[in-house]
Specification:
By secondary structure, this protein is an alpha+beta fold. The protein contains 9 helices and 10 strands. The strands form 2 sheets. It has an 8-stranded antiparallel beta sheet. A hairpin with a 4-residue loop joins β3 and β4.
């Protein structure tokens, strides 16, 4: 799933390639992708893109007439830039193509989504705050005003485990499964530790890991072409997606805890005092 660093890089890329250009066509291919109908998609055609914004994991194209074409790429969605779009409209079908945006230059981009769970979402609104997912977003962890005091206040009464708290978009915007693993590894904390149990020193450590991990990921992604961002993300991850590999810090084996629709990765030596965490799904399979 694209998270804050990748969406931030896409924002920078699209700012360079879209700003000042006219949208001539928006062509939905998958019926499920469009989540709003008033105004209709045709309302954005013939308008100039004036700015590109990011709201958590949402990508927002603002146009001269005040409309916002907003996208959430969900788990399996991606944006593919085309220096030259194919001639003729795309054919609806069972392929990954969900929506196409064409510019007056002949350039544009496709939104695609792999797999069978179609969650990629596109909205055309007058105000991004009309979108429920945007309206409920917590503070952006890389915003200038997001300081350690605000972070501590968010966690003070949070009775959930750190892994779940970091992924909650209404608590902190933009962090998903991959970067929550990376942040907790950098902080040397168990994903199962209760957020409200952190001492002031631990809160400082986690805040620093949060900011540093995301800032470094954004810097790695900056200037990378849209088509290479996925590979860049994977190359920079230390534990997420690296089950069975050696931890780059201590050399211990990276382990995994599986859930119904996702998994987390961690280093026992760095994060849990050398003790493997219980993997309930694997335990059931072994019975």
């Amino acid at each position: 799933m694209p998270e804050l660093p990748e969406v931030e890089a896409l924002k920078d890329f699209l700012t360079e390639h879209l700003t000042g250009h006219e949208i001539v066509r928006v062509l939905p291919v998958a019926i499920s992708v469009l989540k709003t109908y008033d105004p209709p998609l045709t309302a954005v055609e013939g308008t100039e893109v004036t700015a590109v914004h990011r709201h958590g994991k949402f990508l927002d194209l603002e146009t001269a007439d005040g409309l916002h074409l907003v996208t959430h790429l969900a788990r399996a969605g991606w944006l593919h830039w085309r220096d030259r779009l194919p001639d003729g409209p795309p054919r609806p079908g069972k392929g990954p193509l969900a929506l196409r945006v064409a510019l007056e230059t002949g350039e544009g981009f496709d939104l695609t989504e792999a797999g069978t769970q179609k969650r990629l979402a596109v909205y055309l609104v007058r105000d991004p705050g009309e979108i429920p997912g945007v309206a409920r977003l917590g503070p952006d962890p890389l915003a200038d005003g997001f300081d350690e005091e605000q972070f501590a206040a968010l966690l003070k009464d949070e009775r959930r485990q750190l892994k779940g708290a970091l992924r909650d978009q209404s608590l902190i915007a933009g962090v998903g499964n991959a970067y929550s693993d990376e942040i907790l590894h950098a902080a040397r904390m168990s994903p199962f530790k209760l957020a409200a149990s952190l001492t002031p020193e631990e809160t400082h450590t986690l805040y620093t890991a949060l900011r540093d991990t995301l800032t470094q990921a954004v810097e790695r992604s900056r200037g990378v072409a849209a088509g290479r961002l996925k590979a860049e993300k994977k190359s920079g991850l230390r534990v997420h997606g690296r089950t069975g590999e050696a931890c780059p810090v201590c050399g211990d084996t990276v382990r995994e805890v599986s859930f119904s629709d996702s998994s987390l990765q961690y280093c026992p030596t760095c994060q849990t005092g050398g003790k493997p965490l219980a993997d309930r799904r694997m335990s059931r399979l072994l019975k």
